[in-house]
Write a structure and sequence with these properties.
The structure holds 2 protein chains of 2 kinds.
Chain A (H helix, E strand, L loop, with lengths): L4 H9 L4 E7 L5 H21 L4 E5 L6 H14 L5 E7 L2 E3 L4 E3 L6 E2 H9 L5 E6 L8 H4 L4 E5 L12 H10 L10 E3 H18 L9 E3 L18 H4 L2 E4 L3 H5 L5 H19 L6 H23 L1
Parallel strand pairs in A: 1-2, 1-3, 3-7, 7-8
Antiparallel strand pairs in A: 4-5, 5-6, 8-10, 9-11
Chain B lengths: L5 E2 L6 H8 L10 H11 L3 H15 L3 H12 L4 H10 L3 H14 L4 H13 L3 H14 L4 H13 L4 H12 L4 H13 L3 H14 L4 H13 L6 H9 L5 H12 L3 H14 L4 H13 L3 H13 L5 H11 L4 E5 L3 E6 H25 L8 E6 L2 H8 L9 E4 L2 E5 L11 H17 L6 H15 L9 H8 L9 H6 L6 H19 L2 H12 L4 H9 L3 H38 L3 H11 L12 H11 L3 H13 L5 H13 L3 H11 L7 H13 L3 H13 L5 H14 L3 H14 L4 H10 L2
Parallel strand pairs in B: 1-5, 3-4, 4-6
Antiparallel strand pairs in B: 2-3, 5-6
Helix pairs in contact in B: 1-7, 3-4, 3-5, 4-5, 5-6, 6-7, 7-8, 7-9, 8-9, 9-10, 9-11, 10-11, 11-12, 11-13, 12-13, 13-14, 13-15, 15-16, 16-17, 17-18, 17-19, 18-19, 20-22, 20-36, 22-23, 23-26, 24-29, 26-27, 27-28, 29-30, 29-31, 30-31, 31-32, 32-33, 33-34, 34-35, 35-36, 36-37, 37-38, 37-39, ...
The chains are: A alpha/beta, B mainly alpha.
């Protein structure tokens, strides 16, 4: 996939706060109860570590009621600004009756339609819902809208088995390898690509029939895709939402005296991006020569910036 | 797991002849009474029945055009049963099927129609329908010999032991049924018991002096004994000058004995006599494919397909050959390696190196240079590999050898930890050498046993462990006498017998090597090359009868396995308790119980082994050194779980022993090299230990797994290459890293460094 480089850099640099809410629903059995709670807690820990200024709220166990979720989202609706980003992560068991999706919570369940209404009130202009429950594909239709990325562990509501996607979503937040463009920020898009690949590999390696097919939708009008790319138009919003930062690029980027270097770096990055687009049409030796020159110049510029 | 490994066979082609000729002799002049009853049962006119008999007689005597004319007349008979037979004779199978259905409507209780219809289904590759009809016939008439024979033929297709039972019953129910004895002779020869085969063939001939298939069994035995000509074939041809089936029967036995080239020659001879023997042509194509002669194989199989001969073997083999375009071929002076393109970059370095090492080792051990290159085909899709073993006896195989062509599963074709590819490859390569050394004249038990022996000789943690099924077999004294051990591979009488036979054969070779010497195993290879039987080979090389050998071997194996066999029930019971205690977090109990039973059955390294339970308990108690020790024992005993092995490597790293950690992880390369994390860790360890070629290989493997983190993978390889002073290669890699992630600072620093 050709990386939408500038958009990803944007994810690291875009202004505004990000609100993260994680909800782990009912497990039904002790094993799932424990697993869901542990995953929610680990996401909480990783997000906090990777975003010291982030606003993080995590609900699991008996706290994860419909009323509590409503209350937390209502508070964010009050506090968030249009420049902010909002991320909601759902873990647990879901169900789909052919019309509406529900996540199983202690007490009354919460439906996708109800959730969509709650999210509608949040003014954050970039939103992400990561629904990792079984049948989560059934929630997509209710949740999708422009500028909101919707990630589901399953393709449709009829994929009802317990999912493993959440395991790899957590791993994506933990594993620096998820940061494939090495800009020291793991975007939602990178985390999805990581978790989707690991989920597929799990079923393939274990020689088991895949009972979940993770999807990403962020155009607000499609059924989503497993392989977001500039070609299919999916992934733009997700690439603009940072899940966590694993470096300290921000401070350097904001130093006023290095503005000229920063501008030069950006120019070089654009030239590299343009050259990569021309790769197929450029003779290999020529491509390599030009690429090396640009990369070397970029490395030198970065070294200056880092001084 | 070589217990699942087999060497190649074709499927029996005997059933077709039995089906098409089944009643020829029975309805001939010798059995007017049978004919009469059959016809009465069918309520058919005697005149018409006589015509059917005539058609079959013509066919039996090889007057094929006349037989066709005769069958054509039958096909226009007023009786649907006779129409069915006529159409069948004309090879209009669908129409014959319809007429059988019609006939059964008219005579719903007829066992004869069911028997014949079942035979048509059997001939047209539908075993299930055939079986159903034979079973229905037996429900109607418990003592129906025809249905019993039908069930025997169904079982014979899958090398089922029930074949002997049903064929024997058929022979008892109808003492004049020559076919039952023909089949028993055929089965006996498949089981490599020529004396019994001779007896049964003679029984058939006593009933029917014109039993062509009994003569074909005799001819096969002559040729297998390297007699150039067989008087039996002359007799066959006098009766039926176009009876190519005589040759194709022998072809089956040659293939069964891994004498593929001679099998091919026999199939060709069969087709020279009768080019319409589609099963012989299909077998010719399949054997050519197995030996890597793809062009002619495809041509023969396509000819079968176009003629409507579309059995599973033909269709699947053609499909398999279509998939060859997805394979890349790598040749050296003595190897041809075929890997699926999607995993070739990853597997090639490991497999090629191991292939070279195995060939060099065996050349020394067997004192033999191979005449040509070994071809190794590695299939990531187990179904593709399975096509290669279709119609062969034994379990679902992992590897298979056809002369100098070896086909095997790829490590990606099996769940991680369930398959040791290097062990399988060494096993199969042993067959290549032994087959060449004996000119393919070696009994199955010996070549399998030696191959099993060689696995653990290559590395003690390779090869199969003593598994619970084998323990049970030893406990209930189910091991076979050495002279009959082939039967355990070909026609197992209980589900685990193939596994047990592999184990037993391997242990017999260990016993010989230990009590006498490895040289005696080589001497036995030479004996088999001279066509000595197992009793002779044992007598001439070990100086004892097979009875005495069995006695001594059983004493030896009992002593070796006594601890496990005697404590097996106790171990099983206590293991359950230990698992429950681990769940209940009673870690001290787990450690105490585990320590008490672990050495009762040290070979048990499957999921939930005592090693694993104890390591979990120690880990939970924070005693990592003790957990490490358990997993070290697990690994030494041959444990193969990638998760546990990687965990052990972590313990070893934490304990400050990176060398051991690297060796532990390297072991996984021979089990499941498809794991990028393994290669990354091992690469890092070797880089730190300055094993630069090793690190480079591992980082290249990471890249070959097409990781998400392309930038990181290229960078790490670049870094190792720079340390190895391969600057140009390092520059290429670092540029690729930065191409994927231009802002990747470590790669930028490396680029600046190597560009100075």
């Amino acid at each position: 996939m050709r990386t939408p480089l500038l958009l990803l850099l944007g994810a690291a640099l875009l202004p505004g706060a990000t609100f993260y809410v994680t909800v782990a629903g009912l497990g039904g059995e002790p094993e799932y109860e424990q697993r869901f709670a542990a995953q929610a807690q680990e996401i909480d820990k990783l997000i906090r570590a990777g975003n010291p200024d982030a606003k993080v709220q995590t609900l699991f166990g008996h706290q994860a009621t419909k009323a509590q979720v409503q209350s937390v989202l209502a508070a964010i609706a009050r506090d968030a600004k249009p420049a902010d980003a909002f991320v909601l992560m759902l873990i647990g068991h879901g169900s789909f009756d052919g019309i509406d999706y529900k996540i199983n919570l202690p007490g009354p369940d919460l439906s996708a339609v109800e959730l969509a209404a709650l999210l509608e009130r949040i003014p954050a202009s970039r939103q992400l819902v990561v629904n990792m429950t079984s049948s989560s594909g059934g929630s997509r239709a209710a949740l999708e809208k422009p500028n909101r990325a919707v990630i589901t562990a399953t393709k449709s509501g009829s994929e009802k088995n317990a999912t493993i996607f959440a395991r790899y979503w957590v791993e994506a937040l933990r594993d620096p390898a998820a940061d494939t463009d090495k800009n020291e920020t793991v975007s939602a898009l990178e985390a999805f690509i990581y978790a989707e690949q690991k989920t597929s590999q799990f079923y393939e390696t274990q020689k088991r029939l895949a009972t979940e097919h993770p999807m990403l939708e962020d155009t607000g009008q499609s059924d989503g895709t497993r392989k977001p790319s500039p070609e299919n138009g999916e992934g733009r919003v997700a690439s603009q939402i940072a899940m966590l930062h694993i470096g300290a690029t921000q401070a350097a980027a904001n130093t006023p005296e290095k503005k000229a270097l920063l501008a030069h770096r950006e120019e070089l990055e654009q030239q590299i991006d343009a050259l990569k687009y021309q790769k197929a049409a450029t003779p290999p030796d020529e491509y390599k020569k030009q690429l090396e020159a640009l990369l070397l110049e970029l490395a030198k510029t970065q070294a200056e910036l880092d001084k | 797991m070589k217990k699942n490994t087999v060497t190649g066979y074709s499927i029996p082609n005997f059933r077709i002849r039995l089906a098409s000729e089944a009643l020829t002799r029975k309805l001939g002049n010798e059995y007017p009474v049978t004919v009469f009853f059959l016809l009465c049962g069918l309520m058919t006119l005697p005149l018409a029945a006589q015509k059917l008999d005539d058609c079959r007689t013509l066919s039996h005597h090889g007057k094929l055009p006349e037989a066709r004319t005769c069958f054509a007349r039958l096909a226009s008979s007023a009786d649907p049963y006779l129409r069915a037979e006529g159409l069948w004779g004309l090879e209009q199978f669908q129409e014959a099927n319809e007429q059988f259905r019609e006939a059964l409507k008219q005579h719903p209780k007829s066992v004869e129609i069911r028997d014949r219809w079942g035979r048509l289904f059997l001939e047209r590759f539908n075993k299930d329908e055939a079986k159903g009809l034979f079973e229905e016939a037996l429900e109607i008439k418990e003592n129906d010999a025809g249905a019993s024979l039908g069930l025997a033929l169904v079982a014979a297709e899958g090398y089922g032991s029930a074949a002997i039972h049903f064929a024997t019953r058929a022979a008892e129910l109808d003492p004049k049924m020559a076919e039952a004895h023909e089949l028993l002779a055929y089965l006996a020869l498949e089981d490599n018991t020529p004396d019994r085969a001779t007896k049964e063939a003679d029984n058939a001939l006593a009933i029917d002096p014109e039993s062509l298939d009994a003569m074909a069994i005799h001819a096969s035995m002559d040729w297998l004994d390297d007699k150039k000509d067989s008087p039996w074939m002359d007799r066959i041809l006098k009766i039926n000058p176009v009876y190519g089936e005589g040759y194709s029967t022998a072809g089956h036995f040659f293939v069964l004995n891994r004498r593929y080239r001679e099998g091919i020659t026999l199939y060709r001879k069969a087709l020279e006599l009768n080019p319409r023997l589609w099963e012989a042509r299909a077998q010719l194509g399949i054997q050519l494919m197995r030996l890597g002669e793809e062009q002619e194989a495809r041509q023969q199989l396509e000819q079968c397909y176009q003629a409507g001969y579309k059995n599973a073997e033909t269709v699947n083999t053609l499909r398999l050959m279509d998939s060859y375009k997805n394979f890349a071929t790598f040749e050296t002076s003595n190897t041809i390696l075929k890997l699926n393109k999607k995993e070739a970059d990853l597997l090639r370095p490991y497999i090629e190196a191991e292939l070279r090492r195995a060939i060099a080792t065996y050349e020394k051990k067997y004192q033999l240079k191979l005449k040509g290159p070994v071809q190794l085909e590695v299939y990531p899709d187990h179904e593709d590999f399975a096509v290669r073993t279709m119609g062969m006896p034994g379990l679902g195989a992992l590897g298979v050898t056809f002369g100098s062509v070896v086909a095997m599963d790829s490590p990606s074709g099996r769940p991680p930890g369930t398959f040791h590819w290097a062990s399988t490859m060494w096993h199969e390569l042993s067959h290549v050498f032994v087959l060449q050394a004996t000119n393919h004249r070696v009994p199955r038990w010996f070549t399998e046993g030696l191959a099993v022996y060689e696995e653990t000789a290559a590395s003690p943690d390779w090869g199969d462990r003593l598994d619970p099924e084998v323990v049970a077999a030893i406990h209930s004294k189910k091991l076979l006498p050495v002279a009959e051990l082939d039967r355990g591979f070909i026609r197992p009488s209980y589900p685990a017998q193939v596994v047990v036979s592999y184990y037993q054969a391997g242990k017999i070779c260990s016993f010989i090597a230990e009590k006498w010497s490895y040289g005696k195993l080589l001497d036995m290879i030479h004996s088999y090359a001279k066509l000595e039987s197992t009793p002779d080979a044992i007598h001439n090389n070990l100086g004892m009868s097979t009875e005495e050998f069995d006695k001594q071997f059983l004493g030896w194996i009992d002593a070796q396995t006594k601890n496990t066999v005697d404590h097996f029930d106790e171990w099983k019971k206590q293991l359950k308790t230990t698992v429950e205690d681990l769940r209940a977090k009673k870690y001290d109990d787990v450690i105490r119980e585990g320590a008490a039973i672990r050495d009762f059955y040290p070979d048990y390294v499957e999921p939930g082994s005592v090693y694993e339970l104890m390591a979990d308990a120690y880990e939970a108690k924070g005693d990592k050194p003790a957990a490490r020790k358990e997993l070290e024992k697990y690994s030494e005993e041959g444990g193969r779980s990638p998760l546990l092995i990687k965990r052990l490597a972590t313990y070893q790293e934490e304990a400050g022993d990176p060398k051991k950690a690297a060796a532990t992880l390297d072991r996984l390369n021979y089990i499941y090299p498809e794991d990028p994390e393994l290669h990354k860790r091992l690469g890092d360890l070797w880089l730190a230990q300055n094993n630069l070629p090793g690190a480079i290989r591992e980082y290249q493997a990471v890249l070959a797994t097409k990781p998400l983190d392309q930038a990181g993978a290229h960078f790490e390889l670049a870094n190792a290459l720079r340390k190895a002073n391969r600057i140009d290669d390092a520059r290429d890699q670092v540029l690729q890293s930065l191409e994927a992630a231009p802002g990747y600072k470590p790669a930028q620093r490396l680029l600046l460094e190597i560009s100075k």
